[in-house]
Amino acid sequence: MHGGDPHGMIRPARRGADRCLQCHASIGRDVAAHTHHAANSAGSDCYACHMPPTTYGLLAIHPSHRITSPDPARAWRYEMPEACTLCHTNRTAAWAAAEVARQYGHAMPVDRPRDPSFDVAENIRALLGGDVVQRAVAANALAQDASYTTDAESRLWAVPFLLVAMEDRYPALRHFAYRGLLALCRRPAAGDPAVAQAFALPRSTILPRRRRARR
Fold first, then answer.
1. Beta-bridge mates of residue 55
2. Predicted pLDDT at 202
3. Adjacent-strand bridge partners of 56
């Protein structure tokens, strides 16, 4: 399954849903019925739900190597990133738990979060109050294409929070925040020089450039 490609170390031919559906053929016959999302959307991506990007390393967020089922209650039970709000970036973990219960006919978790911080969108709660890995995962999620909306202008709501994260004491977190700001600001500026100039960001000096090895 694994190859030499550093981007997740999964061979390109094995990154799509076909590799999962070769065993889960019954799901493949009606993906939307299983996921309750459009068949070709991020919500029907096997990896996004069952191996979500929650692992930090080498200035990147990688898919988890542990196959799990989405469970929004992990956010308040174990202070762990959970798959649903990594796409629904403007939603709370409690909202995600209610949606899972409604769509799959499950009971709501009995231990609903009492901490008022969980009334805030999970990615913002984690970005501003979580541990260093939670903050990195949240910053990464806010800038991804696989989000609750592909409307570039609507996704600019996350910009002020990433600006706050630029003050984080960890350089790697500041790097994630800066990279996220670049991604969010470039999308609405694509193809329009005037907008591109308005959204231009200064060059980052957060991380030093690599020095060439002396010969």
1. 62
2. 66
3. 61
> Any idea what the Cα angle at residue 191 is, between residues 186 and 192, rounded to 5°?
85
Cβ burial, residue 189 (10 Å; 0-12/13-18/19+): middle
Q: Which of 16, 138, 150 is nearest to 85 (CA)?
A: 138
End-to-end CA distance of the chain: 38
Q: Which residues contact 181 (CB under 8 A, 6 or more apart)?
A: 143, 159, 162, 163, 166, 201
So what's the pLDDT on residue 205?
63
Query: Could you report the per-residue pLDDT of 135-160, keeping only the tens digit for each?
Result: 999 999 998 876 665 677 778 889 99
**Beta carbons within 8 Å of 213's beta carbon, 6+ residues apart:** none
In the block, which residue shows the tokens 């799509």?
Answer: 16
Helix axis angle, 122-129 relative to 132-142, nearest 10°? 140
Instruction: Specify the pTM.
Output: 0.83
- How far apart are alpha carbons 15 and 7 in whole angstroms? 11
Q: Determine the Cα–Cα distance for residues 8 and 23; give it in Å rounded to an integer.
A: 22
Helix or strand or coil: residue 61?
strand
164-198 residue pLDDT tens: 999 999 999 999 999 999 888 887 766 666 656 65
Distance CA 212, CA 178 (A): 24
